[in-house]
Amino acid sequence: MTIALVANLLTSILCAAVLVQSVRMARSLNQVKDGDLPLMVAALDKATGEARGVLSEMKRTLGADCAQHARQVERARELRDELELITGIGNAAAERILGAVKLANADRDEGGADAVDGGGVAAILAAVGDTGTDDAAADDAPVVRAEAA
Predict the structure, then answer these.
(1) What is the dihedral of CA 10, 13, 15, 18, to 10 degrees?
(2) Is 127 within 8 Å of 103 (Cβ atoms)?
(3) What gap in Å lies between CA 40 and CA 46, rounded to an integer?
(4) SS3 per-residue string spanning 57-117
(5) Residue 14 pLDDT more than 90?
């Protein structure tokens, strides 16, 4: 056998395989064409329309909900800042009261009972920093952060 004969036989075999595959593909295309392709396309079109409707509804809902949550988060941050300020003022007042009590106890230990009745109250008020108005004391109070337990 020559090379030309082998090449011709191999080409014939490959051509036959291509013909078989072409017949099979033609049958498959005919089945799709004759089948429910128009119904399938209509169903896909309907499903696509419904999906678009659902997506637009989700966008609308998420847009409203996100804006509402953002407002709530901002309000919560404002409340947190206010609570930090109130806690700081409370801690500062507690420190002043504690210092006044320590001062009063020291005066009592040094001077006896007369110091508490006479000059003890003035010393406590001076230590607390009472100026007659609560706002002035709160404005001068150093901010001390409360520690979480």
Answers:
(1) -130
(2) yes
(3) 10
(4) HHHHHHHHHHHHHHHHHHHHHHHHHHHHHHHHHHHHHHHHHHHHHHHHHHHHHHHCHHHHH
(5) yes
Q: Which residues are within 8 A (CB) of 115 and not within 5 positions of it... i.e. 6 or more apart?
A: 107, 108
Is the pLDDT confidence value at 60 over 70? yes
Q: Are the beta carbons of 86 and 141 closer than 8 angstroms?
A: no
Q: Write the CB contacts of 93 (distance below 8 Å, at least 6 apart in sequence).
A: 137, 141
Burial classification of residue 148, based on how many CB atoms lie within 10 Å of its CB (0-12 exposed, 13-18 middle, 19 or more buried): exposed
Distance (Å) of CA 56 to CA 46, 52, 105: 16, 6, 72
* pLDDT number for residue 116: 45
**pTM for the structure as a whole:** 0.38
Long-range contacts of 8-13 (CB under 8 A, 24+ apart): none
